[in-house]
Amino acid sequence: HTFVEGLLARVFVRDRFTLRSANVDIGDGTVTLEGFALHSGNDGEGGARVEVEQLRLGVDTNPLGAVGRVRSVLVRGMALDVDPTSGAVPDHADVLRLDDSGLTRAGRGGEPPPPIEIVDSTIALRLTPGEAPVRFSDVNLTLLPEEAGSARMILRGSMIAPSGPEVAVSGGGYISAPDFRALLEIDSISR
């Protein structure tokens, strides 16, 4: 899986991620990563950490096409922990290899992001220092290009709040920009 780690290192800062195993199926056009973890490098103080049971990438294997171009991303079993309470708000620049223009080295060609689906996942958000984080379960989200060839993404999906109601998630923007926004909506809360 050293080859796949090398490809990941083109996008992510090398000491910010770990990978348990990788499988490349050229005939099926898939790359499957197992046990992928990414952290913002703040040594447990603030920042963010994400662990993914399985990350499945659909890739272009047509030798006459854009070999290796990612066509789709399926994230299964993601656990995202965000702790901005120390004042160290997570910054994509902590984990992405950016050039002077703010683009990842792998994204210089202007290729828009692929559709991304996140299923069977959890999100923990620490809002107060020393307090337990707020945990959302059954996180199921899709990120789709706003229109064909667009780098702007639309976010849609749902998750279950700690007290049980379903939370609708919507939003959008450029995925690697700090102004990407998400809106959480709960229809009703009953006690």
Summarize the structure.
The chain contains 1 helix and 9 strands. By secondary structure, it is mainly beta. It is globular, with a radius of gyration of 17 Å.
Q: What features would you highlight for this structure?
A:
single chain; 191 residues; mainly beta; nine-stranded mixed β-sheet; 4% helix
Question: Can you characterise this structure?
Answer:
- It contains one helix and nine strands, in the order αβββββββββ.
- It has one helix at 2-8, and strands at 17-25, 30-39, 48-59, 70-82, 116-125, 134-145, 152-160, 166-174, 181-186.
- A nine-stranded mixed sheet has the order 1-2-3-4-5-6-7-8-9, with no helix packed on it.
- It is globular and about 50 Å long.
- The termini are far apart.
Question: Residue ranges: pLDDT <50 for 5 or more in a row?
Answer: 97-109
Strand order of the largest sheet: 1-2-3-4-5-6-7-8-9
Given helix and strand content, the structural type is: mainly beta
- State the helix count: 1
Helix content: under 10%
- Terminus-to-terminus distance: 50 Å
Shape verdict: globular
H-E order: HEEEEEEEEE
Question: Count of DSSP E strands?
Answer: 9
Our estimate of the beta-strand percent is over 45%
The pLDDT mean sits at 80
Largest sheet: 9 strands, mixed
List the SSEs and their pairings.
Elements: H1 2-8, E1 17-25, E2 30-39, E3 48-59, E4 70-82, E5 116-125, E6 134-145, E7 152-160, E8 166-174, E9 181-186
Parallel strand pairs: 4-5
Antiparallel strand pairs: 1-2, 2-3, 3-4, 5-6, 6-7, 7-8, 8-9
